[in-house]
C-alpha cells in the first residue's frame, strides 16, 4: 500500500510540475528502497514478520494434512497382478480436500502458490513411489549390457505389462483426479502441471525406459513376440495415456511414449520381414549329425503357428498396418499369410538340401523320415496346417512312410539274410559241417548287428510315437528270425567251448537293445541361430540343430 501511495504521489508531482526535480528524485529513491525491502526483507514488512510466521504455519499444516492422509494401503488384487500385492493410494477425505483448498486460497493471496505445489508434488509422488516399491520393480533399471537376449528377461517383460497397467489405471488415475480436486479453483494449467511432475517423479519414465531397453536388445525371432507383447500393453492403455498424459505439461511423457511405440513397431516389422531370409541362409549350414529334426524346423513350425494364433495375429496385423501406413502403403492380410507360408516352403527346400549333404544314405533316409513326420504331426490340426491344406499334409505323411520303408530295407532289413538256413536243413556233411555253417553265419550276423547298432545308437528319432514305431518295426524284422534260428540251430554251438562268441545275445537282450535306439538328447531352449550377412540379426542359440522337436521353444 505504501508503494502504491508513493508511486501515485510521484506520478502526480511529475504531471503537474508542483515540485522541483531534486525533491521528486528523492521520492523516487525512497520508492525504490521500499520496493527492495519488499523483495528481500519480506519478514520485515509487517509487525516484525508475524504474517510470514502465520503463512509458514499454514504451509506446515498443508504438508501435515497431505502426509497424514497419503499413506499407501495394501489390498488383495489377484485378478490384475496374480500373486503380487496390490497397493492403492488412500483417497483424501472431502473434509481434508476442503482444508487444503482453504489453505491454498490464503497462501496464493500471499504469493506462495509455487511453494504449495512443490510440497504437494513431493508428498504425493513419494506416496506413489512407495506404492510401486511393493511390486518389486528393480528390473526396470536393467541395462542392455546386463542380459544376452529377451528370453532371459521374459518374466520381467510379462510383469512389466501388468505393473504398467496397474500403475496407470490405479495409481496415476487416482493422482490425476486428486490433482483436479485440490487445484481445480486455480486452473487447468496448474493442476495438470502438478500431475505431470508427480507422474514423472513417481516412475512412469522408468516404465517407458524399460520398454526402450527391450527394443535396443539383440535381434532374435523371439524378440518379435516380446515386442508384440509390449505393443499389446501400450495399445491396451492407449486411451488412458491420451487422457492422463495428453496435456501440454506432459510433453516429455508423450514424446517418450511415441518414441517407444515407434521403436517397437519398427523393430517388430524388421524382424518379421527378415525371417524368410534367415531361414534361407540356414540352408548353407550342415544338417544335424544324428539325423534328428533341426531346431530351425521345430522352431519355425511352432513359431509360425504362434504368429497365426489369436494372441499374436491381431497384434502383428495391426503393427504391419501401421508400418505400411508410415510408408504410404496399404497392408493386406494376405501379405502376412504369404510370408508365413513362404517360411514353410523355405523349410522344405532346406530339408531337401540337408538330406543331400549326408554321406551315409541310410542316415539321410532317417533324417527325411524324421522331418516329414514332424511337419505332418505338428502342423495337422493347426491354423498353419489348414492354410497349407490336407493334400500337403497327406503328402508329408506318405513321405514319412516311404522313407521309413527305405530306411528299414537298406539297414536292419539286410540282417535276417545273414541267418540263412541254406545247407542246414538237408546237409550231407554231418553235424560238424552244420556247426561250422551256424558259427560262420552267427558271427557274420553279430558283426553286422554290432556295427549297425553302434553307428545308429547315436542317431535320434525325435518324435516319441515315431521312435517307438520304428523300433517296433526293427524288432519285428530281426527278433522273430533270430529267435527261430537260435531255437533250431543254437544247440549246435551252445555246447561248444566258444559258445558265447557265437550265441552272443539272447532274444530278450536283442529286443531290449533295439528298443533303446534313437533316444533324444537333452537340449537347450531357444530359437534358431541367426546368420549375419545382412547385419540385421546378431544373436541366437549356438547349437541350433542338435535338438529334439519334442522340446518346444518357449
TrEMBL record:
Residues 535-554 are annotated as: Disordered. Residues 159-515 form the Exocyst complex subunit Exo70 C-terminal domain. InterPro entries: Cullin_repeat-like_dom_sf, Exo70, Exo70_C. GO terms for biological process: exocytosis; protein transport. Keywords: Exocytosis, Protein transport, Transport. Belongs to the EXO70 family. Component of the exocyst complex. This is Exocyst subunit Exo70 family protein.
Amino acid at each position: 500500500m505504501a508503494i502504491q501511495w508513493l508511486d501515485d504521489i510521484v506520478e502526480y508531482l511529475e504531471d503537474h510540475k508542483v515540485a522541483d526535480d531534486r525533491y521528486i528524485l528523492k521520492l523516487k529513491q525512497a520508492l525504490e528502497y521500499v520496493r527492495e525491502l519488499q523483495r528481500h526483507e519480506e519478514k520485515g514488512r509487517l509487525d516484525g514478520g508475524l504474517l510470514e510466521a502465520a503463512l509458514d504455519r499454514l504451509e506446515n499444516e498443508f504438508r501435515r494434512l497431505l502426509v497424514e492422509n497419503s499413506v499407501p494401503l495394501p489390498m488383495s488384487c489377484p485378478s490384475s497382478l496374480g500373486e503380487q500385492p496390490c497397493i492403492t493410494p488412500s483417497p483424501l477425505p472431502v473434509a481434508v480436500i476442503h482444508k487444503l483448498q482453504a489453505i491454498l486460497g490464503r497462501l496464493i493471496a500471499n504469493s506462495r502458490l509455487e511453494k504449495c505445489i512443490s510440497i504437494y508434488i513431493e508428498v504425493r509422488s513419494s506416496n506413489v513411489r512407495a506404492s510401486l516399491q511393493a511390486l518389486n520393480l528393480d528390473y526396470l533399471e536393467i541395462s542392455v549390457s546386463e542380459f544376452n537376449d529377451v528370453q532371459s528377461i521374459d518374466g520381467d517383460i510379462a510383469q512389466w505389462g501388468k505393473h504398467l497397467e496397474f500403475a496407470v489405471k490405479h495409481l496415476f488415475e487416482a493422482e490425476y483426479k486428486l490433482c483436479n480436486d485440490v487445484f481445480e479453483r486455480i486452473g487447468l494449467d496448474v493442476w495438470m502441471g502438478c500431475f505431470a511432475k508427480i507422474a514423472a517423479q513417481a516412475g512412469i519414465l522408468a516404465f517407458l525406459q524399460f520398454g526402450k531397453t527391450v527394443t535396443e536388445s539383440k535381434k532374435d525371432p523371439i524378440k518379435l513376440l516380446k515386442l508384440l507383447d509390449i505393443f499389446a500393453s501400450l495399445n491396451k492403455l492407449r486411451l488412458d495415456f491420451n487422457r492422463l498424459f495428453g496435456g501440454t505439461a506432459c510433453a516429455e511423457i508423450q514424446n517418450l511414449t511415441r518414441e517407444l511405440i515407434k521403436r517397437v513397431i519398427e523393430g517388430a516389422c524388421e524382424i518379421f520381414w527378415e525371417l524368410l531370409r534367415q531361414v534361407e541362409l540356414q540352408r548353407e549350414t550342415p544338417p544335424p549329425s544324428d539325423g534328428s529334426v533341426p531346431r530351425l524346423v521345430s522352431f519355425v513350425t511352432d513359431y509360425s503357428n504362434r504368429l497365426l494364433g489369436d494372441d499374436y495375429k491381431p497384434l502383428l496385423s495391426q503393427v504391419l498396418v501401421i508400418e505400411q501406413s508410415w510408408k504410404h502403403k496399404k497392408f493386406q492380410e494376405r501379405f502376412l499369410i504369404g510370408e508365413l507360408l513362404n517360411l514353410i516352403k523355405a523349410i522344405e527346400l532346406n530339408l531337401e538340401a540337408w538330406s543331400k549333404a549326408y554321406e551315409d544314405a541310410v542316415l539321410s533316409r532317417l533324417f527325411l523320415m524324421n522331418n516329414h513326420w514332424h511337419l505332418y504331426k505338428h502342423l495337422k490340426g493347426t491354423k498353419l496346417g489348414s492354410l497349407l491344406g490336407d493334400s500337403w499334409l497327406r503328402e508329408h505323411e506318405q513321405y514319412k512312410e516311404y522313407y521309413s520303408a527305405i530306411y528299414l530295407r537298406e539297414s536292419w532289413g539286410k540282417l535276417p539274410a545273414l541267418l540263412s538256413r541254406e545247407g542246414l536243413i538237408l546237409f550231407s556233411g554231418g553235424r560238424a559241417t552244420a556247426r561250422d555253417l551256424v558259427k560262420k553265419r552267427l558271427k557274420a550276423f553279430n558283426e553286422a548287428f554290432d556295427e549297425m547298432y553302434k553307428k545308429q545308437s547315436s542317431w535320434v528319432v525325435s518324435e516319441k510315437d515315431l521312435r517307438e514305431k520304428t523300433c517296433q518295426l526293427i524288432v519285428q524284422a530281426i527278433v522273430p528270425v533270430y529267435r527261430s534260428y537260435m531255437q533250431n540251430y543254437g544247440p549246435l554251438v551252445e555246447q561248444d567251448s566258444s559258445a558265447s562268441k557265437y550265441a552272443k545275445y539272447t532274444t530278450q537282450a536283442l529286443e531290449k537293445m533295439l528298443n533303446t535306439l534313437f533316444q533324444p538328447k537333452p537340449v537347450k531352449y531357444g530359437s534358431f541361430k541367426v546368420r549375419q550377412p545382412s547385419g540385421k540379426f546378431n544373436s541366437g542359440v549356438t547349437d541350433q540343430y542338435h535338438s529334439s522337436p519334442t522340446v518346444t521353444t518357449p
